[in-house]
Amino acid sequence: MEKRTVLIYDFKDLSSDARKQAIENIIGMFISNIPYEDLSDNMKKAVDIAEEKQTPWFTGSYIWEYAEGEVLQECRANKFTKFGDFVPWSIIESN
């Protein structure tokens, strides 16, 4: 299997557009991969509001509204491509 080199970036080093994409990707990761019971209280509140209002398509917006600090903390703890796509640690550590 041929190895491919991809440049990875810290969140702070991304362009404004790439940071926005990174934030959306991290929020999507929370929504898709973290069970409700494992979410923080702020994120649970966001999910609950989206369900109460029957607007699941706004769940990400509510997470940003109620848990912005947590989302940014997760962004700062991860790596991304120059476009803001999340780079899993398993890929980084395997090289």
Q: Assign the structural class, choosing from mainly alpha, mainly beta, alpha/beta, alpha+beta, or little secondary structure.
A: mainly alpha
End-to-end distance: 13 Å
Mean pLDDT: 91
* Tally of DSSP β-strands: 3
Q: In DSSP terms, counting alpha (H) and pi (I) runs of 4 or more, how many helices?
A: 4
What is the helix/strand order?
Answer: EHHHEEH
| Helical residue percent band | 55-70%
From the alpha-carbon coordinates, what is the Rg to the nearest angstrom? 15 Å
Strand order of the largest sheet: 1-2-3
Largest sheet: 3 strands, antiparallel
Oligomer: single chain
How much strand? 5-15%
Extract low-pLDDT stretches: none
Any chance you could write out the topology, listing elements then pairs?
Layout: E1 9-10, H1 16-33, H2 41-52, H3 59-76, E2 79-80, E3 86-87, H4 89-93
Antiparallel strand pairs: 1-2, 2-3
Helix pairs in contact: 1-3, 2-3
Structure description:
The chain has 4 helices and 3 strands; from the N terminus they run βαααββα. With 95 residues, it is mainly alpha-helical. 56% of the residues lie in helices and 6% in strands. α1 (16-33) packs across α3 (59-76). A 3-stranded antiparallel β-sheet has the order 1-2-3.
